[in-house]
Amino acid sequence: MSKYTSETQVKVCSFARRTEGDEVTIGDLRRQVFLTIPTDALVILDGLAEGQTVAQARDCYQERYGDAPDIEDFLEALESAGFVSVATEGDEVAPDPTGEPTPTLRWLSPARARRLCQPAAVVACGVLVATALVLVATDPATIPSPAVLVFKHYLAPLTVAMFVFAMAGVAVHELAHLAAARAAGVDSRIGVSHRLWIAVAETDMTGIWLAPKRARYLAFLAGPLVDAASAAVLVGVVWGQRHGLIALTPIELQVVGACLLLYLLRLLWQCFFFVRTDFYFVVAAAFNCGNLMVDTQNFLHNRVARVLPSWRAIDQSGVPEGEMRVVRWYAAFWLVGRAAAFFSLFAVVLPVTWQYIVALVPLLLGGHSRYGVVDGLVFGLVSLSVQGLGLVMWVWSLFRWVIERKSHAMATG
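RE: above sequence
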């Protein structure tokens, strides 16, 4: 028997909305949860939000459309997605304030952002990338090997220079996302987060899911497009040096090559869409799955719950069948990708980090090291602090997840 009886009042969470044809996408921006429902269902939701009982909302719908809706099942599905709940005594039935992010860089108005994101700018970036691909095809050795990242001289200043360059590149990448989102009329802000144990900058543009699909694609691809165009310029410099058009000293060529390789590695990282990379969001948008990551994790959780009785299953009845088909194949990719990532952590990242720690500790103890004091300390502070930040944020997120899971288990008995 449904908990939503005729006289039940329902608490409706605040949600943003966007109508496309006979469907409307509603979104809780704080939780980054989105759901597509028929447009006429808004009559029910808006009525409940105004304080109507379930019976009154049903009568309003029937009066307008001539049919009696299956409102109980509809509300159960909405509850599973966190949009509604039974109002208890003392609850305010009216929606909570919206959870839109506080925008940063207010000087970048929507009008200015639209000028930056004109089709001509996108075409120009495309031309640069296409030209670089042609140059690389004529001379594949233009792409540097990983050896360019190993500086045998001037380690301290070059480490600082590469760090500054990397941070500047990240800033431009995120500004591109922010500009594209702002051009679509979506408030956004730049912050720091992590993907697994890797610290990342990110642009919170949650509301972009309520924008037209074309605007969504541009917002998600703006960062990689700027990275690819920047890499294309560096490809031109390296190619020009190799063919006698530009004169660079060996150290200058190494620095340019290292910068180019950093851009290429950043683009490669975006292909790892078993975490929330830019290309992951493109895939999610292509299949209209605004909650692809969460739905996949809940899907896998429910598979484990079949084996472990202590794990309570999560109701996914509100997820449309079309989205569940995408979730099922994405779950396999999610598992394989996470397994590969953990393998790289224990096989590469941690062993390499440990080697640097072993090499740098003697400097702190006054012993012998293959690095000079300044070189070793600067390299260690920059490299290990960045890596350490990501690891600390990841471990802290795991700790919070365990605490939240225990608290939920105690609350539900």
